[in-house]
Amino acid sequence: MDIILEQPYIQPLHKDWHRQQVASVSMLRLDVLHPVVSGNKWYKLKHNIQYALSEGYKQVLTFGGAYSNHLVAAAATAKAYGIGAVGIVKGQYAEKQLTPTLKECMDYGMQLHFATNEDYAKKGTADYLQLLSDRFNAPFIIPEGGANEWGREGAAEIAQLIPQEYSYICVSVGTGTTLVGIYNGTGSEQQVLGYVPMKHGSYMKEIVYAHLEGMDTSRLSLYDDWHFGGFGKHTAALVNFMNEFYRDNQVPLDMVYTAKMMYGVQEQINSGFFPAEANILCIHTGGLQGNVSLGGQLIY
Ligand SMILES: *Cc1c(COP(=O)(O)O)cnc(C)c1O
Q1: Ligand 1 center to residue 36 CA distance, Å?
Q2: d(Cα 222, Cα 194) in Å, to the nearest integer?
Q3: What percentage of the chain exceeds 70 in pLDDT?
Q4: Cα–Cα distance, 189 to 216 (Å, whole number)
Q5: How far is the centre of ligand 1, averaged over its atoms, from the C-alpha of 283 (Å)?
Q6: What confidence tier does 73 reach under pLDDT thresholds 50, 70, 90?
Q7: Is residue 264 exposed (0-12), middle (13-18) or buried (19+ Cβ within 10 Å)?
Q8: Which residue in 24, 45, 135, 297 is deepest, having the highest Cβ count within 10 Å?
Q9: What DSSP character marks residue 172?
Q10: How far is the CA of 131 from the centre of ligand 1 (A)?
């Protein structure tokens, strides 16, 4: 399976969508990069894998659930760079019922290892990592979500696609790696807004600010109001919003991350949160294959 990447581009949203309450709203379409590999994941993994290769590693190992955007992106990126990949999958049940995501991982040549939930929970401990390292021939281990310094460095590369004229940059938050990388790569006149799709998501603040210790964080804000019941959950209102958004802008949003962010952005626009002269750029991080769980509810 070859990896063909398309060039990301900036797409202005229709004026009716923001009712001209701000100067402009656009999306940076990282989702067009690849149909399966989420745009931000590619950048995070690319830097991890380039580092692994430069250090002479023969394979990388990483973690994810049966629907993980990160895992399939790791498989594809490893394949593109010609390095072996091992995926530690959460839950042994997953072996009996392979999801489309896991099948895709295997198509890209990733070796899957199914861990019990109990073992998987140990993925941050030195003992378990040593066990995996011994078993899988000393791979370069990438944490779930690519959440390490190379992931943040890769995400900073996304910032190079952002022109200075945008005064507000909006991005959705999982591990916060993309947000921190973009924050590090943007200019002193650019506000960076993170949207957390998890319930009680304010704990993300601590994680994000820990990576920015000693730095000026006055350009950064985090919001966790738009979780719609929790991570991966949705409501009829959210699905309606996604369909309307597609009808107005011809941009497909994903249910887990970018739909919740754009819903939040629109509420903020309507409440007068942004100044009238604001030029807003929202990062479309991809993740569209996750929409299969919505069945026929979407018009796209
Ligand atoms: C993984 C993912 C995110 C979150 O990225 P982090 O760097 O972990 O914060 C956002 N959007 C999409 C579509 C993703 O797949």
Answers
A1: 13
A2: 5
A3: 99
A4: 12
A5: 10
A6: very high
A7: buried
A8: 45
A9: E
A10: 28
Contacts of 231 by beta carbon, 8 Å cutoff, 6+ apart: 197, 198, 199, 256
145-156: per-residue pLDDT in tens? 999 999 999 999
With H, G, I as helix, E, B as strand and everything else as coil, classify residue 291: helix
- One-letter amino acid at 182 equals I
Report which residue type is found at 236.
A
DSSP H stretches of helix in the chain: 15-18, 39-54, 69-81, 93-96, 100-107, 117-120, 126-135, 149-159, 177-185, 203-210, 236-249, 258-270
Given ligand 1 and candidates 40, 223, 256, 293, which is best to mutate, with the most ligand atoms within 8 Å of its CB? 40
Using the structure block, give the residue that is written with the tokens 């026929």. 296
Q: Is the CB of 175 under 6 A from ligand 1?
A: yes
**Mutation probe of ligand 1 site: the residue of 144, 257, 284 with most atoms within 8 A of C-beta:** 257
Cβ of 177 closer than 6 Å to ligand 1, yes or no, is yes
In DSSP terms, 63 is beta-bridged to 88
The pLDDT assigned to 1 comes to 55
Contact status, residue 74 vs residue 110, Cβ threshold 8 Å: yes
| Cβ of residue 254 lying under 6 Å from some atom of ligand 1 | yes
Query: Which residue's CA is the nearest one to ligand 1's atom 15?
Result: 287
Calpha distance 68→65 (Å, rounded): 5
Nearest to 110 by CA among 149, 147, 148, 80: 80
- At 195, list the tokens: 């949207």
The answer to whether the predicted template modeling score (pTM) of the entire model surpasses 0.85 is yes
* Chain segment 258-280, per-residue pLDDT in tens: 999 999 999 999 999 999 999 99
Which atom number of ligand 1 is nearest to the Cα of residue 173?
9
